[in-house]
Amino acid sequence: MAEVLKVPTMAEYMVEGKQPEVLFWVGCAGSFDDRAKKITKAFVKILSKANVEFAVLGTEESCTGDPAKRSGNEFLFQMQAVTNIEVLNAYEVKKIVTACPHCFNTIKNEYPGLGGNYEVVHHTQFLKDLLEEGRLRVEGGKFKGKRITFHDPCYLGRANNEYEAPRDLLRKLEVELIEMRKCKSQGLCCGAGGGQMFKEPEKGNKDVNVLRTEQALETNPELIAAGCPFCNTMMTDGVKSKEKEAEIEVKDVAEMIAEAEDL
Amino acid sequence: MQIISQIAFLAAFIVAISFFIRNVRRLYRNIKLGKAIDRTDRPKERLSNMIRVALGQSKMVKRPVAGILHILVYVGFIIINIEMLEIVIDGIFGTHRVFSFLGGTYNFLIGAFEILALLVIVSIITFWIRRNVVKIKRFWSSEMKGWPKNDANYILYFEVALMTCFLLMNAADYQLQLNGAEHYASQEGIIGGFPVSQFLLPLIDGLGNSALIVIERTTWWLHIIGILIFLNYLYYSKHLHILLAFPNTYYAKLTPKGELTNLEAVTNEVKLMMDPNADPFASPEAGAADEEPEKFGASDVTDLNWVQLLNAYTCTECGRCTSECPANQTGKKLSPRKIMMDTRDRLEEVGEQLNKKQPIAEGKQLLDDYITREELWACTTCSACVEACPIGIDPLSIIIEMRRYLVMEESAAPNELNVSMSNIENNGAPWPYNQMDRLNWAKEN
């Protein structure tokens, strides 16, 4: 497993005069956050295994502007958006996949009005397509029969009505999927959205991630599955606050697939 | 005597309708204080949303108990109000049960109205118990103290009173018909069906015809005057939703919940900044100089768009949004319902100044005087409130608009957010990492 990942950039593709099948938008968390980097690598391993011709922007990628926009800084958001769109359009990008629902939502919904029109998919949707096209095969492996609950990311679920793609993947892994009392369109936020990830919460009687973790623990899971690097961090912290980190892991669906396939 | 009664009825009717029209015009004027926003696209989808969500109550039943009870009251009121038509005609022309020529159908209809009226009463009593005895949490939040709590109960009392009058009126009418009283009895036998009110007959047992007529007339008058008062109560009450739910669902946002608007004024400035050919010292175009520089975001109701103001008038304060809000559930001050209530209260205050032909007074605004910064910064933008609203209200859009004002006009974001925004500005990520290190993960093991 010590082999170096092969991660081509758009610039390299351009030098060869080729276009990749899809651009993998890594996002800030996926690039810099130690926990999220593991998700990024797991996803890259799956892409390689499925022989997907992908590329990243690498150092040419910059924050989509999502946290700025949701904090009210429309100027900063649009500056980021316009800069990113210039880069994406220069490379004539058609299709984008990302493992971050915030990047997904912003590029998919808020970039078109500023001149950025791409087909944008969340990594769970992309993986589901790979499975359906027969390019990737997944068997239960180490997760078969495990009690697992899935935490819906707000910006994949409510914001964009995608509840099934991650669940389809979990079913492929033959897990025992147990839904929380609050799930899908009624799922509770992990507490990170709208800029909350980067600030202290307002005064209250509990942290949102702890409340959500309590809801997850009600299902008595062996593992909490997530589909967003921020949810992942929040739920991991929540599990730690309940001193359950020895028994309950928090993993991204992509990580689970990579592990099941021994990648 | 008959003619006096007819004139009195007509006068009451005209006064009530005129007052109602005056209030509707004020409502329309106040909503139009909002900024323009185009919500005329995709008319078919809008119509179908209105039919499903407002007419069909599809989102109400997400909470089955409240949802089903609400449907009973809603259906009851709409259908029983068909009977209003007859009541109005009888009132104006001094007729008795003018639609009775429908024969068996008529008897069936009156019978069905009675059963519905009973179901409405049962539902209303259950609602009252849920609010005042069971004390369901969302009805007892801090923003529900005083008027909002009383308003909710007044509506329930009104409805029970109206339904009771309707049933008592029918009971007296039925007894009068049985007695063969003049004006009431018909050669064709008993007209109308009285499956519920027949059980009220013991209450009026032994009364003479004149006493029965007093009861029948009094309940008839109370019923009709009650409805006319209720109609005019709407404007001052959360109950306005019975009318506004329809336009509100029609004009609701159709784009994905996660999609926020891109501010056009910002787009223009950003384009100018990015355009290498733009001359920063160019004199403004002719005419442009007189324009007031646009304010970014919202600090008062007039900075919001008219759909957001319509939302505020439509809110019936059920609190489903607040009970789903992650911030509220964890004890933060934010309550999406309060955002809507504050917006309406402030808009009413502005409207009151307009009623008095005063200019909108400076010194008071939606931000700080109604909605605090602490509330605004507690939002996670998760859209749970938008999803929960049974009639398509979008509290999140108001929160974002007010955050825009705080950040772009006042630079008043919480400090940690300012730090992460400077990071985005300087190195393209909310954390202080160098953009040149963005691909380092690929080489790490």
TrEMBL record, chain A:
A cellular component annotation (GO) from this entry? plasma membrane
Its keywords, alphabetically, are: 4Fe-4S, Iron, Iron-sulfur, Metal-binding, Oxidoreductase
Database matches in Pfam families: CCG
Cite the GO molecular-function annotations of the record. Answer: 4 iron, 4 sulfur cluster binding; metal ion binding; oxidoreductase activity
Judging by the UniProt lineage, the source's domain of life is Bacteria
List each coiled-coil range.
none
Ranges for domain Cysteine-rich = 22-108, 148-235
Q: What protein name does the entry list?
A: Fe-S oxidoreductase
TrEMBL record, chain B:
Enumerate the spans annotated as 4Fe-4S ferredoxin-type domain: 306-337, 369-399
Q: Which GO terms describe its cellular component?
A: plasma membrane
Stored Pfam families:
Fer4_9 (PF13187)
What keywords is this UniProt entry annotated with?
4Fe-4S, Iron, Iron-sulfur, Membrane, Metal-binding, Oxidoreductase, Transmembrane, Transmembrane helix
Q: Which PROSITE patterns match?
A: 4FE4S_FER_1 (PS00198), 4FE4S_FER_2 (PS51379)
Any idea which GO molecular function terms this record carries? 4 iron, 4 sulfur cluster binding; metal ion binding; oxidoreductase activity
Q: Coiled-coil annotation: which residues?
A: none
Membrane-crossing residue ranges in chain numbering: 6-24, 65-88, 108-129, 154-172, 220-236
Sorted alphabetically, which Gene3D superfamilies does this protein's record hold? Answer: Alpha-helical ferredoxin (1.10.1060.10), Transmembrane di-heme cytochromes, Chain C (1.20.950.20)
Task: Look up the domain of life of the source.
Answer: Bacteria
Q: What name is this protein filed under?
A: 4Fe-4S ferredoxin-type domain-containing protein
